[in-house]
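Limitations
The structure tokens in this dataset are predictions for the assembled complex, not deposited experimental models. Users should treat interface geometry with appropriate caution, especially where small molecules or nucleic acid strands are included. An illustrative entry is reproduced here so readers can see what is and is not provided.
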Amino acid sequence: MTRSRRPSAQTLTVLRALAAAPARWRHGYDLCTELGIQFGSMYPILMRLADRGLLEADWETDRVPGRPPRHLYRLTSTGLAYVTSLDTSLAAESDAAAQSRRRPRPQLGGA
Amino acid sequence: MLILAVLAAAAAAIALTIRGGEADLPARIVVFSANRLPGNRRTWGEAMVAELVAVRGTGQRWRFAAGALRTALFPPAPRPEHARTTTIVGVLTTITATAAAARLVPTLLVFVAAFGVLVTGSTRVLAGRLARPRPTRGQLACGALVVVTVMTVAGTVVDVAITHPVATRDPTYAFSFVLAATLSVYLIAGLGITLTGRTAPATRWGGVAGAGVAVVASLLFPHNSALISPISPSVAAATLATALVVGLVARERGAAARAGLLATVLSAPANFAVAILALQSAHPTALTDPYDISAYSRSASPDVTSYLLGEALGGNIVSLAVAAPAMYVLATLGGRAAAGRAASTDPSPRVGR
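Predicted assembly:
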């Protein structure tokens, strides 16, 4: 059994961007420019997501003359479910934190 | 001078390695980086190269190239838990070794600490590049040979520090840092060549054989280690011969360069250890060189052997630092010539790599 670690903020940003339009295939460099993430960070993130089965990759099938086909990425169904469950747990944690802030602090009893 | 020599040799090595016809330099760096990704990430390398067409503007292309280089240097570890374990073990070992050095060999405290930190970082990087499936027995045997050879240098220096502590005094710590960095480079280069699966067994064993010949030559004809030694002729000859033979047989200049570099990585540290141990066992008590006589009277060395060992250590550390990049240039040139000759004399078409 592997331990499930909370993804980094950048990984979460990538996951949410991909989950926003799950059927759409995206280019790596376009994700970099859209999300403001450096290329050197983006590819390791994509590699890790693919290693975990959360991302699928494929080559462009529509040939454009004069340039090689580019790699495309989108979330797998597992990846989409992961983002959903992650957002749910984050929202629950956020609610719990807000409630604990609103709860009145216990008063120190005095004699 | 030393830093300039190492930088010049390293720049020449990189310039020889990065090639790419009419493409601009960022594109060549991306191709170079893509080719350095571990075998299981090769498709990702192709994806990075293909992505270049979308990157416009000089600044953007340079940033993209820097990102590709970073990805090639630090790819995600295939087994992150192993990488974490490697880091933890490395940090604990470094702390223990540094504490032991502080008690037993205080003159080597900085060297031990710097070497530990650099080796931990290097092995962490290497953990992300290890071949999948597990390395073969042959790969592990060659990797063990690299570790033993590099650690022989560290062991030799520790031995000198115990028997002649004054010889290892380094007030500026420059030699400590240079030796730590040099040994780390040897370790990562040797393990990278032997363990990461890019190197064919023939190339690997060719490098080992070349190093074996060089070590035997060093044992039979030890050079005068008391002088600031140039690169050992036996190491240079073994490196060039290995690159030429592997280039002719494999007809691939990359394989020839890797085999030549492996010969250097294995033979230069062995040469270092042989030279220092030979001087230590000779235990000289008199000086003949006028420069040494004058320098010895000004030095704080308590005896001639300590003085000569100190000089020999400095010279051999410089030699070791310069050897790796210089020999890589030599191996690349030799491999290029041999692979080109083999291709021009063989009319049969090549199949596969």
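Some entries come with short summary sentences. For this one: The first strand of chain A starts at residue 26 and ends at 27.
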